[in-house]
Design goal:
By secondary structure, the protein is α/β, with parallel strands linked by helices. It is built from 12 helices and 18 strands. The longest helix is centred in the C-terminal third of the chain and has 30 residues, at 315-344. The model has no long low-confidence stretch (mean pLDDT 95). The structure holds flavin-adenine dinucleotide (FAD).
Length: 379
Protein backbone atom coordinates (compact mmCIF):
# COMPACT_ATOMS: atom_id res chain seq x y z
CA UNK A 1 0.00 0.00 0.00
CA UNK A 2 1.36 3.40 -0.95
CA UNK A 3 0.74 6.20 1.55
CA UNK A 4 1.56 9.84 0.86
CA UNK A 5 1.69 12.60 3.45
CA UNK A 6 1.58 16.30 2.59
CA UNK A 7 3.35 18.49 5.17
CA UNK A 8 6.47 17.87 7.25
CA UNK A 9 5.41 19.68 10.44
CA UNK A 10 5.00 17.93 13.78
CA UNK A 11 1.81 16.11 12.68
CA UNK A 12 3.20 15.00 9.29
CA UNK A 13 6.51 13.73 10.67
CA UNK A 14 4.87 11.96 13.60
CA UNK A 15 2.34 10.33 11.26
CA UNK A 16 5.20 9.05 9.09
CA UNK A 17 6.92 7.66 12.19
CA UNK A 18 3.73 6.01 13.45
CA UNK A 19 3.14 4.38 10.04
CA UNK A 20 6.72 3.16 9.99
CA UNK A 21 6.29 1.68 13.46
CA UNK A 22 3.20 -0.24 12.28
CA UNK A 23 5.05 -1.46 9.18
CA UNK A 24 3.80 0.86 6.41
CA UNK A 25 6.09 2.77 4.06
CA UNK A 26 5.19 6.33 3.23
CA UNK A 27 6.59 9.49 1.70
CA UNK A 28 6.27 12.99 3.12
CA UNK A 29 6.15 15.96 0.73
CA UNK A 30 7.08 19.25 2.35
CA UNK A 31 6.87 22.63 0.63
CA UNK A 32 9.82 24.21 2.49
CA UNK A 33 13.27 23.67 0.99
CA UNK A 34 14.64 23.14 4.48
CA UNK A 35 12.92 22.26 7.71
CA UNK A 36 13.83 25.63 9.15
CA UNK A 37 14.49 26.29 12.75
CA UNK A 38 11.31 27.61 14.30
CA UNK A 39 12.56 30.05 16.92
CA UNK A 40 10.29 29.18 19.79
CA UNK A 41 9.64 26.48 22.32
CA UNK A 42 6.77 24.10 22.81
CA UNK A 43 5.26 22.27 25.78
CA UNK A 44 4.70 18.56 25.22
CA UNK A 45 2.07 17.22 27.59
CA UNK A 46 1.79 13.63 28.90
CA UNK A 47 -0.61 12.50 26.13
CA UNK A 48 1.94 13.54 23.48
CA UNK A 49 4.78 11.99 25.50
CA UNK A 50 2.93 8.66 25.64
CA UNK A 51 2.89 8.59 21.83
CA UNK A 52 6.53 9.69 21.65
CA UNK A 53 7.38 6.85 24.08
CA UNK A 54 5.49 4.42 21.85
CA UNK A 55 7.67 5.71 19.00
CA UNK A 56 10.71 5.16 21.26
CA UNK A 57 11.58 8.85 21.08
CA UNK A 58 10.29 9.96 24.49
CA UNK A 59 13.64 9.56 26.24
CA UNK A 60 15.40 11.67 23.60
CA UNK A 61 12.76 14.40 23.89
CA UNK A 62 13.08 14.46 27.70
CA UNK A 63 16.88 14.51 27.46
CA UNK A 64 16.82 17.48 25.10
CA UNK A 65 14.15 19.46 26.92
CA UNK A 66 13.25 20.45 30.46
CA UNK A 67 10.73 18.51 32.53
CA UNK A 68 8.27 20.82 34.25
CA UNK A 69 6.95 19.69 37.63
CA UNK A 70 4.07 22.12 37.51
CA UNK A 71 2.40 24.94 35.60
CA UNK A 72 1.37 27.96 37.66
CA UNK A 73 -1.01 30.71 36.69
CA UNK A 74 0.21 33.83 38.48
CA UNK A 75 -0.47 37.52 38.75
CA UNK A 76 1.85 39.97 37.00
CA UNK A 77 4.25 39.84 39.98
CA UNK A 78 4.57 36.07 39.47
CA UNK A 79 2.60 35.17 42.58
CA UNK A 80 0.48 32.07 41.98
CA UNK A 81 -3.29 32.38 42.29
CA UNK A 82 -3.24 28.85 43.64
CA UNK A 83 -0.37 26.45 44.24
CA UNK A 84 -1.72 23.26 42.74
CA UNK A 85 -0.16 19.92 43.55
CA UNK A 86 2.55 18.72 41.15
CA UNK A 87 0.35 15.69 40.55
CA UNK A 88 -2.14 17.74 38.50
CA UNK A 89 0.06 17.93 35.39
CA UNK A 90 1.22 14.34 35.64
CA UNK A 91 -0.34 11.20 34.18
CA UNK A 92 -0.67 7.72 35.67
CA UNK A 93 2.79 6.83 34.26
CA UNK A 94 4.29 9.88 36.03
CA UNK A 95 4.82 11.65 32.71
CA UNK A 96 5.07 15.39 33.23
CA UNK A 97 5.15 18.26 30.75
CA UNK A 98 8.39 18.61 28.76
CA UNK A 99 9.36 22.05 27.43
CA UNK A 100 11.62 21.85 24.39
CA UNK A 101 12.89 24.00 21.51
CA UNK A 102 10.68 23.39 18.46
CA UNK A 103 13.67 22.98 16.18
CA UNK A 104 15.08 20.31 18.50
CA UNK A 105 11.79 18.42 18.50
CA UNK A 106 11.51 18.64 14.72
CA UNK A 107 15.11 17.41 14.34
CA UNK A 108 14.45 14.42 16.63
CA UNK A 109 11.39 13.44 14.56
CA UNK A 110 13.15 13.94 11.22
CA UNK A 111 16.29 12.02 12.22
CA UNK A 112 14.18 9.02 13.25
CA UNK A 113 12.81 8.65 9.70
CA UNK A 114 14.63 6.95 6.82
CA UNK A 115 16.70 9.46 4.78
CA UNK A 116 14.58 9.34 1.61
CA UNK A 117 11.22 9.51 3.39
CA UNK A 118 10.88 13.31 3.48
CA UNK A 119 11.02 15.18 0.18
CA UNK A 120 11.72 18.86 0.78
CA UNK A 121 10.90 21.64 -1.69
CA UNK A 122 7.81 19.68 -2.83
CA UNK A 123 4.63 21.72 -2.86
CA UNK A 124 1.25 20.03 -3.07
CA UNK A 125 -0.82 21.60 -5.87
CA UNK A 126 -3.97 19.52 -6.37
CA UNK A 127 -5.46 16.03 -6.39
CA UNK A 128 -7.82 13.84 -8.37
CA UNK A 129 -9.73 11.00 -6.76
CA UNK A 130 -10.47 7.91 -8.82
CA UNK A 131 -12.17 4.73 -7.72
CA UNK A 132 -9.31 3.21 -5.76
CA UNK A 133 -6.39 5.63 -6.04
CA UNK A 134 -5.61 9.30 -5.51
CA UNK A 135 -3.58 11.15 -8.11
CA UNK A 136 -1.54 13.84 -6.36
CA UNK A 137 0.16 16.75 -8.08
CA UNK A 138 3.24 17.81 -6.15
CA UNK A 139 5.70 20.30 -7.68
CA UNK A 140 5.93 19.10 -11.28
CA UNK A 141 5.32 15.44 -10.38
CA UNK A 142 2.25 13.23 -10.45
CA UNK A 143 2.04 10.59 -7.76
CA UNK A 144 -0.46 7.76 -7.62
CA UNK A 145 -1.22 6.78 -4.05
CA UNK A 146 -3.61 4.54 -2.14
CA UNK A 147 -4.05 6.94 0.76
CA UNK A 148 -3.32 10.66 0.98
CA UNK A 149 -2.82 12.26 4.39
CA UNK A 150 -3.11 16.05 4.57
CA UNK A 151 -0.86 17.31 7.37
CA UNK A 152 -0.37 20.71 5.79
CA UNK A 153 -1.45 22.93 8.66
CA UNK A 154 -4.22 25.41 9.34
CA UNK A 155 -4.24 26.77 5.75
CA UNK A 156 -4.36 23.25 4.28
CA UNK A 157 -4.61 23.04 0.52
CA UNK A 158 -5.39 19.33 0.76
CA UNK A 159 -8.43 20.25 2.88
CA UNK A 160 -9.51 22.86 0.33
CA UNK A 161 -9.21 20.22 -2.41
CA UNK A 162 -11.74 17.86 -0.80
CA UNK A 163 -14.10 20.15 1.08
CA UNK A 164 -15.62 23.48 0.31
CA UNK A 165 -13.50 26.24 1.80
CA UNK A 166 -13.53 26.30 5.60
CA UNK A 167 -12.81 29.37 7.60
CA UNK A 168 -10.37 30.31 10.27
CA UNK A 169 -11.65 32.12 13.37
CA UNK A 170 -9.43 34.98 14.52
CA UNK A 171 -9.48 35.15 18.32
CA UNK A 172 -8.77 38.89 18.51
CA UNK A 173 -5.39 38.09 20.11
CA UNK A 174 -1.83 38.06 18.87
CA UNK A 175 1.05 36.10 20.37
CA UNK A 176 4.73 37.04 20.33
CA UNK A 177 7.19 34.26 21.03
CA UNK A 178 10.91 34.10 21.55
CA UNK A 179 13.90 32.38 23.12
CA UNK A 180 15.86 34.34 25.71
CA UNK A 181 19.46 33.51 26.56
CA UNK A 182 19.11 33.25 30.30
CA UNK A 183 19.04 30.81 33.18
CA UNK A 184 15.97 31.30 35.38
CA UNK A 185 16.22 31.61 39.17
CA UNK A 186 15.96 28.19 40.89
CA UNK A 187 12.33 28.68 41.96
CA UNK A 188 11.26 28.85 38.27
CA UNK A 189 13.60 26.19 36.87
CA UNK A 190 11.05 23.38 36.79
CA UNK A 191 7.85 25.39 36.52
CA UNK A 192 5.88 26.59 33.54
CA UNK A 193 4.55 30.07 34.25
CA UNK A 194 1.61 31.91 32.74
CA UNK A 195 1.20 35.33 34.36
CA UNK A 196 -1.86 37.50 33.93
CA UNK A 197 -1.84 41.28 33.91
CA UNK A 198 -4.66 43.56 32.89
CA UNK A 199 -6.02 41.74 29.83
CA UNK A 200 -2.53 40.63 28.83
CA UNK A 201 -0.55 37.46 29.50
CA UNK A 202 3.10 36.43 29.59
CA UNK A 203 4.30 32.85 29.90
CA UNK A 204 7.72 31.24 30.07
CA UNK A 205 9.75 28.18 31.00
CA UNK A 206 13.34 27.02 30.86
CA UNK A 207 13.83 24.74 27.83
CA UNK A 208 17.54 24.03 28.20
CA UNK A 209 20.46 25.11 30.40
CA UNK A 210 20.60 28.73 29.21
CA UNK A 211 17.51 29.10 27.07
CA UNK A 212 14.09 30.26 28.12
CA UNK A 213 11.04 30.01 25.86
CA UNK A 214 8.48 32.77 26.36
CA UNK A 215 5.16 33.89 24.91
CA UNK A 216 3.33 37.18 25.25
CA UNK A 217 -0.36 37.48 24.34
CA UNK A 218 -2.33 40.68 23.80
CA UNK A 219 -5.62 41.72 22.23
CA UNK A 220 -5.06 43.17 18.74
CA UNK A 221 -6.76 43.69 15.42
CA UNK A 222 -5.72 41.58 12.42
CA UNK A 223 -2.83 42.06 9.99
CA UNK A 224 -0.52 43.97 12.31
CA UNK A 225 3.23 44.01 11.67
CA UNK A 226 6.36 44.51 13.75
CA UNK A 227 9.54 46.44 13.31
CA UNK A 228 12.52 44.62 14.80
CA UNK A 229 14.18 47.93 15.68
CA UNK A 230 11.52 48.75 18.25
CA UNK A 231 9.70 45.50 19.08
CA UNK A 232 11.74 45.02 22.28
CA UNK A 233 10.85 48.44 23.64
CA UNK A 234 7.20 48.03 22.59
CA UNK A 235 6.91 44.71 24.42
CA UNK A 236 8.74 46.07 27.46
CA UNK A 237 6.34 48.97 27.54
CA UNK A 238 3.30 46.66 27.37
CA UNK A 239 4.69 44.52 30.21
CA UNK A 240 6.17 47.36 32.28
CA UNK A 241 4.03 46.53 35.32
CA UNK A 242 5.13 42.88 35.35
CA UNK A 243 7.83 41.33 37.55
CA UNK A 244 11.37 42.48 36.53
CA UNK A 245 12.16 38.89 35.44
CA UNK A 246 9.63 39.26 32.62
CA UNK A 247 11.32 42.44 31.39
CA UNK A 248 14.70 40.75 31.67
CA UNK A 249 13.47 37.82 29.56
CA UNK A 250 12.29 40.22 26.83
CA UNK A 251 15.60 42.12 27.05
CA UNK A 252 17.68 38.96 26.62
CA UNK A 253 15.92 37.98 23.38
CA UNK A 254 17.30 38.77 19.96
CA UNK A 255 14.69 41.20 18.56
CA UNK A 256 14.80 39.95 14.97
CA UNK A 257 14.06 36.40 16.17
CA UNK A 258 10.81 37.36 17.91
CA UNK A 259 7.89 35.67 16.13
CA UNK A 260 4.51 37.33 15.79
CA UNK A 261 1.49 35.05 15.23
CA UNK A 262 -2.16 35.95 15.13
CA UNK A 263 -4.11 33.46 17.21
CA UNK A 264 -6.76 31.67 15.20
CA UNK A 265 -8.39 28.30 15.09
CA UNK A 266 -10.41 26.41 12.51
CA UNK A 267 -14.17 26.27 12.41
CA UNK A 268 -15.27 22.72 13.18
CA UNK A 269 -15.20 20.53 10.07
CA UNK A 270 -18.09 18.10 9.56
CA UNK A 271 -15.64 15.46 8.43
CA UNK A 272 -11.89 14.97 8.38
CA UNK A 273 -11.86 12.51 5.50
CA UNK A 274 -13.31 11.88 2.07
CA UNK A 275 -12.69 8.76 -0.02
CA UNK A 276 -8.98 8.02 0.33
CA UNK A 277 -7.95 11.40 1.69
CA UNK A 278 -7.71 12.16 5.40
CA UNK A 279 -6.61 15.22 7.37
CA UNK A 280 -4.52 15.22 10.55
CA UNK A 281 -3.18 17.88 12.92
CA UNK A 282 -3.92 21.55 12.34
CA UNK A 283 -5.24 20.78 8.85
CA UNK A 284 -8.19 19.01 10.51
CA UNK A 285 -8.63 20.83 13.81
CA UNK A 286 -6.29 23.77 14.46
CA UNK A 287 -6.87 25.11 17.95
CA UNK A 288 -5.89 28.29 19.74
CA UNK A 289 -2.77 27.58 21.83
CA UNK A 290 -4.26 28.35 25.25
CA UNK A 291 -4.25 24.73 26.42
CA UNK A 292 -0.81 23.97 24.94
CA UNK A 293 -2.36 21.01 23.13
CA UNK A 294 -2.33 21.78 19.36
CA UNK A 295 0.71 19.72 18.46
CA UNK A 296 -0.23 17.15 21.10
CA UNK A 297 -3.51 16.56 19.29
CA UNK A 298 -1.69 16.16 15.95
CA UNK A 299 0.65 13.64 17.60
CA UNK A 300 -2.34 11.71 18.94
CA UNK A 301 -3.87 11.70 15.43
CA UNK A 302 -0.72 10.02 14.13
CA UNK A 303 -0.94 7.28 16.75
CA UNK A 304 -4.66 6.57 16.25
CA UNK A 305 -4.56 6.69 12.45
CA UNK A 306 -1.62 4.29 12.20
CA UNK A 307 -3.17 1.86 14.68
CA UNK A 308 -6.55 1.86 12.95
CA UNK A 309 -4.86 1.35 9.57
CA UNK A 310 -2.96 -1.61 10.98
CA UNK A 311 -6.20 -3.18 12.09
CA UNK A 312 -8.32 -2.71 9.01
CA UNK A 313 -7.44 -2.09 5.38
CA UNK A 314 -10.93 -0.98 4.33
CA UNK A 315 -10.36 2.74 4.17
CA UNK A 316 -13.87 4.07 4.69
CA UNK A 317 -14.30 2.05 7.89
CA UNK A 318 -10.78 2.78 9.11
CA UNK A 319 -11.06 6.52 8.58
CA UNK A 320 -14.48 6.59 10.24
CA UNK A 321 -13.09 4.74 13.26
CA UNK A 322 -10.12 7.11 13.41
CA UNK A 323 -12.34 10.15 13.32
CA UNK A 324 -14.85 8.93 15.86
CA UNK A 325 -12.08 7.92 18.28
CA UNK A 326 -10.53 11.38 18.08
CA UNK A 327 -13.49 13.77 17.86
CA UNK A 328 -14.52 14.09 21.47
CA UNK A 329 -11.10 15.07 22.79
CA UNK A 330 -10.31 17.36 19.89
CA UNK A 331 -13.63 19.19 20.31
CA UNK A 332 -12.98 19.51 24.04
CA UNK A 333 -9.54 21.03 23.43
CA UNK A 334 -10.63 23.41 20.68
CA UNK A 335 -13.69 24.68 22.58
CA UNK A 336 -12.06 25.02 25.98
CA UNK A 337 -8.96 26.62 24.57
CA UNK A 338 -11.09 29.21 22.77
CA UNK A 339 -13.07 29.95 25.96
CA UNK A 340 -9.94 30.11 28.10
CA UNK A 341 -8.37 32.64 25.72
CA UNK A 342 -11.45 34.84 25.77
CA UNK A 343 -11.71 34.79 29.56
CA UNK A 344 -8.02 35.41 30.16
CA UNK A 345 -8.29 38.70 28.27
CA UNK A 346 -11.35 40.14 30.01
CA UNK A 347 -11.59 41.56 33.56
CA UNK A 348 -14.71 39.58 34.39
CA UNK A 349 -13.34 36.45 32.72
CA UNK A 350 -10.15 36.63 34.78
CA UNK A 351 -12.19 37.01 37.99
CA UNK A 352 -14.30 33.98 37.13
CA UNK A 353 -11.28 31.89 36.19
CA UNK A 354 -9.45 32.82 39.39
CA UNK A 355 -12.52 31.85 41.44
CA UNK A 356 -12.82 28.53 39.59
CA UNK A 357 -9.11 27.82 40.12
CA UNK A 358 -9.33 28.58 43.83
CA UNK A 359 -12.52 26.60 44.38
CA UNK A 360 -11.70 23.53 42.31
CA UNK A 361 -10.01 20.89 44.45
CA UNK A 362 -6.75 19.46 43.04
CA UNK A 363 -8.42 16.05 42.91
CA UNK A 364 -11.05 17.34 40.45
CA UNK A 365 -8.43 19.17 38.38
CA UNK A 366 -6.37 15.99 38.24
CA UNK A 367 -9.39 14.01 37.03
CA UNK A 368 -9.94 16.54 34.22
CA UNK A 369 -6.27 16.43 33.22
CA UNK A 370 -6.26 12.62 33.36
CA UNK A 371 -8.98 12.54 30.70
CA UNK A 372 -6.89 14.82 28.50
CA UNK A 373 -3.77 12.73 29.05
CA UNK A 374 -5.43 9.36 28.38
CA UNK A 375 -4.90 7.61 25.06
CA UNK A 376 -6.50 4.43 23.77
CA UNK A 377 -4.29 1.40 24.46
CA UNK A 378 -6.13 -1.32 22.49
CA UNK A 379 -7.31 -1.11 18.87
C1 LIG B 1 1.65 30.70 19.85
C2 LIG B 1 1.50 29.20 19.76
C3 LIG B 1 1.95 28.39 20.79
C4 LIG B 1 1.74 27.01 20.73
N1 LIG B 1 2.16 26.23 21.77
C5 LIG B 1 1.92 24.90 21.75
C6 LIG B 1 2.35 24.05 22.83
O1 LIG B 1 2.97 24.51 23.80
N2 LIG B 1 2.07 22.72 22.77
C7 LIG B 1 1.39 22.18 21.71
O2 LIG B 1 1.16 20.96 21.70
N3 LIG B 1 1.01 22.95 20.66
C8 LIG B 1 1.25 24.27 20.64
N4 LIG B 1 0.87 25.06 19.59
C9 LIG B 1 0.18 24.44 18.44
C10 LIG B 1 1.16 23.81 17.48
O3 LIG B 1 2.16 24.73 17.13
C11 LIG B 1 0.45 23.34 16.24
O4 LIG B 1 -0.73 22.66 16.58
C12 LIG B 1 1.33 22.38 15.44
O5 LIG B 1 2.56 22.97 15.14
C13 LIG B 1 0.62 21.97 14.16
O6 LIG B 1 1.40 21.03 13.49
P1 LIG B 1 0.97 20.53 12.04
O7 LIG B 1 2.07 19.63 11.62
O8 LIG B 1 -0.42 20.05 12.06
O9 LIG B 1 0.95 21.86 11.15
P2 LIG B 1 2.14 22.84 10.77
O10 LIG B 1 3.10 22.99 11.88
O11 LIG B 1 1.50 24.08 10.25
O12 LIG B 1 2.88 22.10 9.60
C14 LIG B 1 2.35 22.03 8.30
C15 LIG B 1 3.50 21.75 7.32
O13 LIG B 1 2.94 21.61 6.02
C16 LIG B 1 3.73 22.32 5.09
N5 LIG B 1 2.86 22.70 3.98
C17 LIG B 1 1.86 23.62 3.97
N6 LIG B 1 1.29 23.69 2.76
C18 LIG B 1 1.93 22.78 1.97
C19 LIG B 1 1.81 22.39 0.61
N7 LIG B 1 0.89 22.94 -0.22
N8 LIG B 1 2.63 21.44 0.13
C20 LIG B 1 3.57 20.84 0.94
N9 LIG B 1 3.75 21.21 2.24
C21 LIG B 1 2.94 22.15 2.74
C22 LIG B 1 4.22 23.53 5.88
O14 LIG B 1 5.38 24.07 5.30
C23 LIG B 1 4.48 22.90 7.24
O15 LIG B 1 5.80 22.39 7.35
C24 LIG B 1 1.09 26.43 19.60
C25 LIG B 1 0.70 27.25 18.55
C26 LIG B 1 0.90 28.62 18.61
C27 LIG B 1 0.44 29.48 17.47
Amino acid sequence: MKITIIGGGIAGLTTALALKKIGFDCEVYERAKQLNEVGAGIWMQPNALKVLDWLELGALVRENGTTLNRVDITNDKLISFKKTSNEVVQDERRNKIVAIHRATLQRILLDALPKNCVRLGSEFKSLEISENKVKVFVGDREILTDLLIGADGINSKVRDSIFSRTSKRFSGQTCWRGIADIHLPDEFQKTGIESWGKKIRFGFSQISENKVYWFAVMKTSQNGTDDSTNITSKLKNSYKDFHPLVLNIINQTQADKIIRSEISDLKRLDKWHKDRVVLVGDAAHATTPNMGQGAGQGIEDAYYLANFLAKNHRFEKTLDSFESARREKVDYVVNNSWRFGKMAHSDLGQLIMKAIMKLTPDKVMKQQMSKLYAIQEQF
